[in-house]
TrEMBL record:
One of its GO terms (molecular function) is zinc ion binding. One of its GO terms (biological process) is protein ubiquitination. PROSITE patterns: MIB_HERC2, ZF_ZZ_1, ZF_ZZ_2. This is MIB E3 ubiquitin protein ligase 2. It is found in: Cytoplasm. Pathway: Protein modification; protein ubiquitination. Residues 86-138 form the ZZ-type domain. Keywords: Cytoplasm, Metal-binding, Repeat, Transferase, Ubl conjugation pathway, Zinc, Zinc-finger.
Length: 403
C-alpha cells in the first residue's frame, strides 16, 4: 500500500461516525470518538481491504467501511496522533508552533492559519471560507464558511473523563486493581513524536501516570463517564479512506522551502514592517539582516519588555529567561520557522526569536569555550510528558511495579 496516497489510513487516528454510518449506537452516539487500531488488508477474513477496526472510547471494538463497497462510515477528526505536523505554520489564534494535525487556512485573509481546535471552537470570522490541509503535503480542499453550519459536541476520553483500564492495558495494578476508576487530568503529545496521543490519569489512590490513547495505535483506557472535548463541523471533516491529494514533488510555480535553505528578504523595509503586524511584530533589528546558523555565537538583547513582546509565538517568555538577557550563548539548533535554540554560557538553553539576538564574535571573550561541550536537547519546543509514566524511547507507559 502506498503510504503517501493512504496517509489518511493509519493506526492511531481519532475518528467519528460519518455520512454512510448505519450501525446504530455502536459508537455510543454521534459525537463520540474512537481510535483506528487496525488497517484492513487483502485476504483477511475479518478485516478486508478498505476497512478499519476502531476502538471506541466507550469500549466497543469492531470494523467499519473506508471505501469498501463505495461506503465511508467514518470521518477523520484528528491525525496529530500519527505525527502529522506542519513545521513552518503557526496557529494565528493560539500561537502554537509547528501546527499539529490538520491545518485550516483562511481563503480571505492573508497568511492566516488555524489549528483544528481553534477552527472548531469558532475562532476567526465565521463568514470566511477556509482551505483544509490534511497533511503538510496535501493539496488544499476548500470548505464553506462555518456561519450557520451545525456543530457537534465531541465526547470521549478528554480532560475530566472517568476511565478504567482498557484493551491494551499492560501496566499491572498501577490503577489500584481491575475495576478501579481514574480521572483524566489532560490530553497531551508524546514528546515531539505524536500529538494529543496520551492521557495523564490520576487514580483513586492518588498516583498519576501517562497512558496511550492513539499513540502507536494503542488504547490503554476505557471511558466509563465521557467528557466533552470540543466541537466539530461534520461537513468539514474528510472521509476516512479518501486518499489525500498530494502536492507535486516539485512545483515550478511555488517551490517549497526546505529546512536549512538560505533565503533573502527582497521587501522594502516599510513593506516588511507592515506585513509583520500580527505575525511576530516588527523590531528595528530586523533591518540589520542578521542570519544565524548552528554554532554561531550570539548575545541576547537586554531590553526586557522588547524580548517579552518578541517572544510571543516564538518559544514564549518565562521569568527565568530574564537571567539570559545581555548574556552570550551558542546557537544549538535552527527550527524550521527560524527560531533558535540557544545555550547560554554557564546556564540553560532557551528558544529565542532571532530578533532577540545579536551576532557575537568568539575572539571577544575567551571564556566562551565553556559552550563547546553544550549538548543539544532532544526537544527544542516540548518537554517530555511528566508523571511517573514517562518512559524512554519505547513510548508512553506507566511505571512498571517492581517484581
Amino acid at each position: 500500500m502506498d503510504s503517501e496516497c493512504y496517509a489518511s489510513m493509519q493506526v492511531g487516528m481519532r475518528v467519528v461516525r460519518g455520512a454512510d454510518w448505519k450501525w446504530g449506537n455502536q459508537d455510543n452516539g454521534e459525537g463520540n470518538v474512537g481510535t483506528v487500531v487496525e488497517i484492513g488488508r487483502q485476504g483477511s477474513p475479518t478485516t478486508p481491504d478498505r476497512t478499519v477496526v476502531v476502538q471506541w472510547d466507550q469500549g466497543t471494538r469492531t470494523n467499519y467501511r473506508t471505501g469498501f463497497q463505495g461506503a465511508y462510515d467514518l470521518l477523520l477528526y484528528d491525525n496529530a496522533q500519527i505525527g502529522v505536523r506542519h513545521p513552518n505554520i503557526i496557529c494565528d489564534c493560539c500561537k502554537k508552533h509547528g501546527l499539529r494535525g490538520m491545518r485550516w487556512k483562511c481563503r480571505v485573509c492573508f497568511d492566516y492559519d488555524l489549528c483544528t481546535q481553534c477552527y472548531m471552537n469558532n475562532k476567526h470570522d465565521l463568514a470566511h471560507s477556509f482551505e483544509r490541509y490534511e497533511t503538510a503535503h496535501s493539496r488544499p480542499v476548500t470548505v464553506s464558511a462555518r456561519h450557520n453550519l451545525p456543530r457537534i459536541t465531541l465526547r470521549g476520553i478528554f480532560q475530566g473523563a472517568k476511565v478504567l483500564r482498557g484493551p491494551d492495558w499492560e501496566w499491572g495494578n498501577q490503577d489500584g486493581g481491575e475495576g478501579k476508576p481514574g480521572r483524566v487530568i489532560d490530553i497531551r503529545g508524546w514528546d515531539v513524536e505524536t500529538g494529543r496521543s496520551v492521557a495523564s490519569v490520576t487514580w483513586a489512590d492518588g498516583t498519576t501516570n501517562v497512558y496511550r490513547v492513539g499513540h502507536k495505535g494503542k488504547v490503554d483506557l476505557k471511558c466509563v463517564v465521557e467528557a466533552p472535548g470540543g466541537f466539530y463541523y461534520k461537513d468539514h471533516l474528510p472521509r476516512l479512506g479518501k486518499p489525500a491529494e498530494l502536492q507535486r514533488k516539485a512545483s515550478a510555480e511555488s517551490p517549497p522551502f526546505q529546512h536549512g535553505d538560505k533565503v533573502k528578504c527582497l521587501l522594502a523595509m516599510d513593506i516588511l514592517r507592515e506585513m509583520q503586524e500580527g505575525h511576530g511584530g516588527w523590531n528595528p533589528k530586523m533591518a540589520e539582516h542578521n542570519t544565524f546558523w548552528v554554532g554561531d555565537m550570539v548575545r541576547v538583547i537586554e531590553d526586557l519588555e522588547t524580548v517579552k513582546r518578541l517572544q510571543a509565538g516564538h518559544g514564549e517568555w518565562t521569568d527565568d529567561m530574564a537571567l539570559a538577557l545581555g548574556h552570550i550563548g551558542k546557537v544549538m539548533k535552527v527550527f524550521g520557522d527560524g527560531d533558535l535554540r540557544v545555550s547560554i554560557v554557564g546556564g540553560q538553553s532557551w528558544t529565542f526569536n532571532p530578533a532577540c539576538l545579536m551576532a557575537y564574535h568568539l575572539e571577544a571573550d575567551a571564556n566562551l569555550n565553556a559552550t563547546e561541550s553544550a549538548k543539544e536537547p532532544k526537544s527544542g519546543l516540548l518537554s517530555r510528558p511528566g508523571g511517573a509514566g514517562a518512559a524512554a524511547a519505547a513510548g508512553p507507559r506507566g511505571h512498571r511495579p517492581a517484581g
